[in-house]
Amino acid sequence: MRPNIIMKMLILGICVFFMLSFSARKTTRGGIHVAWGPESHAGPKKAGKGGPPPHAPAHGYRAKHNYRYYPSACAYFDISRKVYFYLEKDNWKISVSLPQTIQLRLGDYVTIEMDTDKPYTQFIEHKRKYPPGQLKKKKKKRPKQ
């Protein structure tokens, strides 16, 4: 064989080797890990905060959700997600705004911290604990004269 053909085959072999090695490499793009190979059958994984997935919280770790509960309207407002949960007939609805039939009074709410992203699961307890019109107003202390 001529040295020219041997050199071309060697270069072609090196190129194929690099192409195969790079195609099996994990890459990160836009916060989602993309993998080729056996581990790719598990599906894409989102990069984010550490900790367990929502369906299996670690011992002692629970995500906290803060809500404003409006007793007169039977509605919740999720402070972080900025959505309302409200009762319509016998079903709970979620929306970024309330229907015109539900009117909220400013300051007529209780702040509740919960471990769930569905506040209405404890609605009966909240309704009993905070009946409409019974929220205690904070009295302002008058300065001594």
Description of the structure:
This protein is an alpha+beta fold. The chain has a domain at 65-129. Helices cover 19% and strands 23% of the residues. Strands 7-6-5-4-8 form a five-stranded antiparallel sheet, with no helix packed on it. Strand 1 and strand 2 form a beta hairpin. Residues 28-41 and 138-142 have low confidence and may be disordered.
List the helices and strands and how they pair.
Blueprint: H1 3-23, E1 27-29, E2 32-34, E3 45-46, E4 65-70, E5 75-78, E6 83-88, E7 91-95, E8 110-114, H2 123-129
Antiparallel strand pairs: 1-2, 2-3, 4-5, 4-8, 5-6, 6-7
Briefly, what is this?
Helices cover 19% and strands 23% of the residues. With 145 residues, it is α+β, with helices and mostly antiparallel strands. The strands form two sheets. It has a five-stranded antiparallel beta sheet with strand order 7-6-5-4-8, with no helix packed on it. Strands 1-2-3 form a three-stranded antiparallel beta sheet, with no helix packed on it.
| Beta fraction | 15-25%
Number of helices: 2
What is the typical, i.e. mean, pLDDT? 74
User: Topology as H/E string?
Assistant: HEEEEEEEEH
- SS elements, strand count: 8
Rg, rounded, reads 29 Å
Q: How is the largest sheet built, in terms of strand order?
A: 7-6-5-4-8
Overall form: rod-shaped
How far is the first residue's CA from the last residue's CA?
110 Å
Major sheet size, sense and barrel closure = 5 strands, antiparallel
Which blocks of ≥5 consecutive residues have pLDDT under 50?
Answer: 28-41, 138-142
Structural class: alpha+beta
Give the proportion of residues in helices. 10-25%
